Amino acid sequence: MKVLIVSDIHGSLDSALAIQRIFEEEKCEKIICLGDVLYHGPRNDLPPQYKPKEVIAILNQYADQIICVQGNCDAEVDQMVLDFPILPFYDATINDKTCHFEHGHHLKMDGHVAQMVFFGHTHIPQMEEKNDTIYWNPGSITLPKNGSKRSYLIWENHLITLKDIDGNELFSFHYE
């Protein structure tokens, strides 16, 4: 299965259009969004092209292909306009790995039974192995922090690749 993993869209039309382009160009089967879909929150600057209504229209086109977890900036009202559920977390087996997906604002990097944990929130790409679990953060597709680039993950079969918004490979990890 080929999966596009994004986080922290924060209502940016430019980022929603990028997700649409990447999903189609990469021929992905699923989009997993790690939260903070429509609102930028009080700690972030207004994102470029902040147009949440247009973001809603784009993402709703993929409602059957999106799995989304709730971020700290997501509200109940968001669920009223999105045609896909915003879940507190999501657990699944994907590409032969047990996985846990959450936004990350309550993440504890200990004691996970999943082989892979995916989270956002920090806006900083990360891959760290701890106690037989690999923790992944795709960074933010809209508001990167600490000098990182706007980024996302592509997961196909046994290869996970971090790419910047232009599709340039930043890091890849192959597992057996």
From TrEMBL:
It holds the Pfam family Metallophos_2. GO terms for molecular function: hydrolase activity; metal ion binding. It comes from the Bacteria. Its cofactor is a divalent metal cation. SUPFAM superfamilies: Metallo-dependent phosphatases. Its EC number is 3.1.4.-. Residues 1-156 form the Calcineurin-like phosphoesterase domain. InterPro entries: Calcineurin-like_PHP_lpxH (IPR024654), Metallo-depent_PP-like (IPR029052), Phosphodiesterase_MJ0936/Vps29 (IPR000979). The keyword Hydrolase applies. Keywords: Hydrolase, Metal-binding. Belongs to the metallophosphoesterase superfamily. YfcE family. This is Phosphoesterase. It comes from Candidatus Pelethenecus faecipullorum. The gene is yfcE.
